[in-house]
Amino acid sequence: MKSTESILRDKHFQLLSFLITSARGCVDEPKLYGPLRLLDAASRLIEIMEEEGKSTDEISKLKELIEENIDILMYDEEEFIRLLDNLTRQLAKIIKNQKT
Amino acid sequence: MELIELIKGRRAVRRFREEPIPVEHLKKILEAGVWAPSGSNVQPWEFILVTEKENIERIKLISPGLFGNPQTLVVLCINRKRAEKGGELGQTTALMDISMAAQNMMLMAYSLGIGSCPVVSFSKTALRELLNIPDFVEPVLILSFGYPKFWPKPPRRRPLREVVHVEEYGKHFEG
User: Fold this and answer.
1) Closest Cβ–Cβ partner in A8, A29, A71 for B121
2) Sequence-ordered list of residues with C-beta below 8 angstroms from that of B20, at least 6 positions apart, any chain
3) How many CB pairs under 8 A join A and B?
């Protein structure tokens, strides 16, 4: 088992903590904060995948796209939804190009 | 700087440089908060200053709306016992008082070149536990502070003509 001190620095635990507190927050927060938190979580997950050598250039580009644009919700909701569509499209391309 | 320039220039900053804020500047920011108006001069606020990196990291774990690596956090709380002095309206007024204190702090910070961001997306339950906040004190807002990596562009503001009504509702401001 890991010590408490090391678990606080563990990226999986940080993601876990983010997910649980976000779940509670989403009960009261604006509707679009749900997708915002999920995107943030996706970015954090890709970071973990990168550290564990499980990411690819295409997946890491998704993270860059999220990090560069995640603030857009505060300025332009329609643009934020276009970002979600774009990310979904990019994800589909990654899936499509994978050999089974 | 003119007051209107401070008001218009302040932005919600979510990306900070790794540069500590001098204690004298933190003191100015906190004093600005204390000098906010409050209903019946109740001053229902309690401010919890957090500068230890490890403590900030712990708070970040339970605050989905807290972005970047701020150097300092101020947790603004309502002291419900003090707010009771404001009568039935006291609890509502306390939230307004806290908001005015927060704006004072953010403007003071901006005047010192320090960025800030108000955060309400945090777990109150978890924050109470982490900071040993008693039941009669309610954390309602976190302000994050730090030197910005960049100043974000200003979001669009609703024009005065749309927002301001002259003499009665529906007669829009034309000035």
Assistant:
1) A29
2) B51, B71
3) 34
**What are A12-36's pLDDT values in tens digits?**
999 999 999 999 999 999 999 999 9
Domain ranges in chain B are 3-163
Q: Is A33 on the interface with B (CB under 8 A)?
A: yes
Q: Domain coordinates of chain A in residue numbers?
A: 4-97
Min Cα separation A87/chain B (Å): 21
Distance, in angstroms, between A91 CA and closest chain B CA?
24
Q: Classify domain B3-163 at the CATH superfamily level.
A: NADH Oxidase (3.40.109.10)
Query: For residues A88 and B52, what is the distance between their CA atoms, to the nearest angstrom?
Result: 39
Q: Strands (DSSP E) along chain B, which ranges?
A: 45-50, 72-79, 115-119, 137-146
pLDDT value of position B175: 82
Question: Which chain A residues are Cβ-neighbours of B125 within 8 angstroms?
Answer: 24
B138-167 tens-digit pLDDT: 999 999 999 999 999 888 899 999 999 999
Q: Who among A8, A37, A71 is closest to B64 (CB)?
A: A37
pTM: 0.89
| Non-local CB neighbours of A53 within 8 Å, separated by 6+ positions | none
| ipTM exceeds 0.90 | no
CB contact under 8 A, B64 and A75: no
At residue A65, what is the residue type? L
